[in-house]
User: Fold this.
Amino acid sequence: MAELNLNVDIAPYNARQLRLANPVIVASGTFGYGDEYPHLFDRNRLGAIVCKATTLKPREGNPQPRIAETPNGMLNSIGLQNMGVEAVIREKAPQWYTWGVPVIVNIAAESIEDYAELARRLDKVPGVSGIEVNISCPNVKCGCIEFGSSPESAARVTDAVRNATTLPLIIKLTPNTSSITELARAVADAGADAISLINTLRGMRIDIKKRRPILGNHTGGLSGPAIKPVAVSMVYQVSGAVNVPVIGGGGIMNAEDALEFIMAGATAVQIGTANLVNPRAPLEVLEGLEAYARAEGLKNIREIVGIARS
Ligand SMILES: Cc1cc2nc3c(=O)[nH]c(=O)nc-3n(C[C@H](O)[C@H](O)[C@H](O)COP(=O)(O)O)c2cc1C
Assistant:
């Protein structure tokens, strides 16, 4: 049988590089710190793990309820509950250093200075292989408008983080914007090594008996299969607009879904909500991709990246 190569490089222009054994990444907020499910499957089979959002100080998160089901998806408003960067560096990174799978730290902040400070603290930490910047956060100093909603503010965050670290830098775009391609170009020009998309779409549900919003925080982020066509279309648009690798996700439940993203132009894929339904989903996606590649006689998964564009 021909040798099959599933390796992908998601930061080819960064000297520190981020080579993954395969394109299957678990998405931030849906796989904890990677240490919670050791019995379910061998985490070293994953391409990479993105840990939950990390902020400078620990955060308790939003009031309950934080989750609501929707047709073909879910709403969440966790509110970035996490242990804070110092605890991550002290308690989690030393474990990650011993694993065979790269761990990327997802960072979130309320000011550009805090994003840069997070990157500075993580820069030389053994066990941290890259940074993914969640720019779907409100800028507290500027009227609480999301950093990711305009190309200018997204570029300012990217530039500040870029100057604070040489680690591979992934900027995670929000779909809650008027032009996803302008946003992507702005962050690529400002020094992003890769772009991941999409984060959740803003949404809301009302409890009609109580006549009140269901979520404690009123609104939340919509994820799961309901958002997949939006995500595939944005990956298709962005991968045609930038030269850096695109990491695609949004509603991937199985290998067929992942293939749609890869054919739309994603070099790698992120599995999020599926982990909450079926914790073995990432492994099943990987095995499905392998089976597809062998059945199609591919030598390298890169042969089909963006093939739907040509
Ligand atoms: C419960 C939950 C928590 C999440 N937490 C984060 C987070 O901390 N940081 C982040 O960038 N994205 C977070 N996300 C977004 C996911 O990483 C992913 O981008 C999004 O859900 C779309 O993919 P999916 O439909 O496969 O879930 C979260 C999603 C869910 C469902």
Notes: The mean pLDDT is 96. The longest strand covers residues 103-107. The chain has one domain: 8-309.
